[in-house]
Design a protein that fits this description.
The chain is mostly helical and 218 residues long. Helices cover 77% and strands 0% of the residues. It binds protoporphyrin IX containing FE (HEM).
Length: 218
């Protein structure tokens, strides 16, 4: 325990925690998206899947604790690294060179908090139902379709998933770096891989509000 805490006290330790929790959250998002894509298979398939999950409370609550813990650690370690970096350079650079840093890495510091804000809204919207205009517990298909029929709600989901895509692209890229799997010779492949996974997740999630708005799912 003492060894783990003193490792966490170093910048490398915190980066490792961000990388490992980030990968876990990415896997959660992938499974979540695959489950939700059953929207395209109709109400029976999606509601049956949701009912199956809710019939296993120990599994669901165990998973919820893990996901919430991973989110909390991911945010805490990122915040501490950010404050540590600020402390290391109290006087800002006179000339800031961002040429080599791409768009998603520069947006990391505000895409993270915005995705968190979206997550809070999303939980109140589709899990608790308190900000859903017509929530019906147990009828996930209906809740999703009635939600995305309102274009401002669909727009929030599309915008948030675009941001999440950029956040994940940079996260996946950094993941290789932190785990020591980066080499200039493979950087092109690393970049393609990060883009591919981020695009896969963003496209799958965005397909749902777009399909409802377009009337392909009703
Ligand atoms: C179009 C995209 C999405 C759809 C259609 C969707 C749909 C849903 C639905 C219907 C639920 C409630 C499930 C239930 O009560 O049975 C839910 C819960 C949840 N969603 Fe999403 N979601 C989407 C994107 C996201 C994103 C991007 C995140 C993370 C940033 C996320 C994180 C969560 C979490 C943490 C829960 C709570 C899970 C639980 O109650 O155990 N979702 N989502």
């Amino acid at each position: 325990m003492q060894a783990a805490l003193s490792f966490y006290g170093t910048a490398v330790g915190k980066k490792m925690v961000v990388a490992v929790t980030g990968l876990f959250l990415f896997l959660f998002l992938l499974i979540h998206m695959l489950g939700n894509l059953q929207l395209f298979a109709g109400p029976e398939a999606l509601n049956h899947y949701a009912a199956f999950l809710h019939s296993k409370p120990v599994l669901v609550w165990g998973f919820r604790v893990l996901v919430a813990g991973a989110f909390a650690l991911h945010i805490l370690a990122t915040l501490q690294l950010f404050l540590q970096n600020l402390g290391a350079r109290p006087v800002p650079y006179r000339v800031k060179r961002t040429v080599e840093i791409d768009y998603s890495s520069r947006t990391m510091i505000w895409s993270g908090p915005l995705v968190l804000l979206f997550l809070l809204y999303h939980l109140l919207h589709l899990t608790v139902g308190s900000v859903h205009p017509d929530f019906s517990a147990g009828d996930v298909y209906r809740n999703v379709v009635t939600a995305f029929s309102l274009w401002p709600v669909a727009a929030v989901y599309i915008g948030a998933n675009l941001l999440l895509g950029f956040h994940l692209k940079h996260g996946l890229w950094s993941w290789f770096q932190t785990l020591g799997l980066a080499h200039p010779r493979y950087n092109r492949w690393r970049n393609c891989f990060a883009w591919l996974l981020a695009l896969l997740l963003a496209t799958g999630n965005i397909a749902m509000p777009v399909a409802v708005l377009a009337g392909w799912v009703d």
